[in-house]
Amino acid sequence: MKKILLMIYIFTISQLFSITLEDLEKSLEANYPNFKNSDLYDKITEIEEQKILSYLFPQFSLIGSFSDQSETMELPISSALFQIPETDTQRKQIVLNIDQILYDSGVNHQRRELSNLKMEIENDENVIKLESLKEKLFSLYFAALFQKEKLEIKQNLLNNLNERKKTAIKSKEVGILQEKDIYLLESEIIKVEQDILEAESGLADVYKKISILTGESLAVGIDFEKPEFTEKHSYRKEYDLFKSRILLLDENSTLYSKLKLPKLVANAQIGYGNPGLNIFDNEWNDFYKYSINFKWDIWNWRRYHSEQEILKVRKKILENEESAFSKNLEMRKNESIEKIKKITAMLENDRKILELRLKIQKITNSQFDNGIATSIDVIDDNTAVANTQISLRLRELQLLYEKLYNKKYIGEIR
């Protein structure tokens, strides 16, 4: 049902004129190849349950044997009253052997716990791989936003320069401006058009990468909405994975402890042989026997103890890895906090600079329209405004990126 809803959701997205980061994340989930693995993991779990349960069922084995020996057993007695039968040197038997576990000290239950835990770990690993792809999508999404902003600013600059070119042509006709002013404007217009082509190419490349990642066919004209900032911290799935892996080691240690404990097994044999149970009867006979066997592994040269010692070392390694993971996150978080402070301070200056540049641009354009300023003045001031706007928009996106990244991908640190 979940997959059907996701497919309907993907079809709906393709009909939209704008898209959000959340939309693309859902598409990434739906089209992620390992997304189908969840059903396969469920299938494995079901098979594992059946396999582990089968250890509690009677175990049947068919055993055939043939042997020949140089001599047979002889009784060290003799009697005139009766003749002691001779036994054959050859033995031929076929036996159906049946073993039934009566008590295993919880070994089978422990195997089931381990199997379920392994499936949880594989699911967690799958989720972490997906989160890694979402992080790539996150970076690409902001790259697309910046390219969009840059393209818009460059297009505004181009429109402004084209307006100035029209004014320059009229001013030349009445002798206010020279022909070189028109040439200067035309060369700058070509340069800006090249910048626009470059920005469009960069945007198309980002769209293509996002399309490959999410499985969506995104038209370049579709708008990307700015993500909304939230104070809610995400939770790193890696911590669940560390916890599950450490628990798996503990459960394995418990299994080794239980393997040493007493076990009770019932055994039955139904056979047909020559001889049967009576070794003095050299005819083919059927036979049966049953027994209850007790086994206690009281000494195994510390084999299980050694395995448990290895598990303790592995557990310490995992704890160190978790600590290193937390420290790396802490470093990235502190780096992000410092970036946020730096960008916030620089944004204030960018806004002040842009305010002044817009005033200068307005004066220069007015002077140019009245034949006072030159084309060089117009190009310099309009380009300066565009570059300041690009710098401002970039820092605004960088600030949003760092804030969201901090909450979304650094998350809560242990």
Describe the fold and architecture.
- With 414 residues, this protein is an alpha+beta fold.
- The protein contains 8 helices and 6 strands.
- The strands form 2 sheets. Strands 2-3-5-6 form a 4-stranded antiparallel β-sheet, with no helix packed on it. Strands 1-4 form a two-stranded parallel ribbon.
- It is rod-shaped and about 155 Å long.
- The model is unreliable at 1-15 (pLDDT under 50).
Question: Which properties best describe this structure?
Answer:
414 residues, Outer membrane efflux proteins (OEP), four-stranded antiparallel sheet, 6 strands
- Structural class call reads alpha+beta
The average pLDDT is: 87
Sheet bearing the most strands, described? 4 strands, antiparallel
Put simply, the count of helices is: 8
Give a topology summary.
Layout: H1 2-13, E1 18-19, H2 21-31, H3 37-54, E2 59-68, E3 90-103, H4 107-173, H5 179-214, E4 223-224, H6 237-259, E5 263-274, E6 285-295, H7 303-369, H8 375-410
Parallel strand pairs: 1-4
Antiparallel strand pairs: 2-3, 3-5, 5-6
Helix pairs in contact: 1-2, 2-4, 3-4, 4-5, 4-6, 4-8, 6-7, 7-8
Structure in a nutshell:
It is built from eight helices and six strands, in the order αβααββααβαββαα.
